[in-house]
Predict the structure of Light harvesting protein.
Amino acid sequence: MAEDLRGLAKTQNPVLGYFDPLKLGDQDFWDQGNDATVGFLRHAEMKHGRVAMAGFVGYCIHENGIRWPWALSTSLPDYSSFDGLSAPAVWDATPQAHPLPPSAQGARLQILLIIGFFEFWSESAYVLEQDGTKHYMRGGKPGYFPTFKEIPHPVPLNLFDPFGFTKKLSAEQKAKKLNIEVNNGRLAMLGLFSLISEAKVPGAVPALAGKIKPYDGEVMAPFSAADANLPYVGDMITFGKGLFAATGN
């Protein structure tokens, strides 16, 4: 409940405490009840924090010229096509898709499909029930990602804690580490958007001025006009342009 959220905030950051200027923690999203709303908010924050931590590290790695020592795919034998590009521009330069699996490694559609699968798997009530838990909006643990034991084909490692480092931890130790993760995720979200903001609008972040490669693409869109061959993408682009025009941007 909202009161539990306020108490949790003090353990996560005793200095800042509970900070919710939009009063989201007191809302009732989709008429599901406040408990479901709090579960949704906590899960969303953890998920975005984890993605941001990976994104921040990846952004720093690219900007510092660190590369894998092997070929990306059969059509991308090296990183020469990414030279001089900002980290967000690498996504735009990655091939959309290829007809054959061997050459599809790293293609954007393949990446989006696997992300979509992870979303489906983590939201499935059946999958969660097989792990002995519930959906995070139905009394389950926010941030929990189910195992892959229900997949017919054997999967050697799980996405969360693949090597079982947390199995022997007590409930108190797990709660403490989760609070640390949440705080790291919050910092990563601020850090990642600082990098993206400076790339999109040079000078927007004075501390990073002149240190980040500029980017003139769409940071909030997985597809651009170059992907208009995909179903509905052209319509989405047209709608987006009309929305920006209506708001005067």
Q: What stands out?
A: The domain at 2-217 is CATH 1.10.3460 (Chlorophyll a-b binding protein). Confidence is low (pLDDT under 50) at residues 99-105. The chain has one domain: 2-217. The chain has seven helices and no strands.
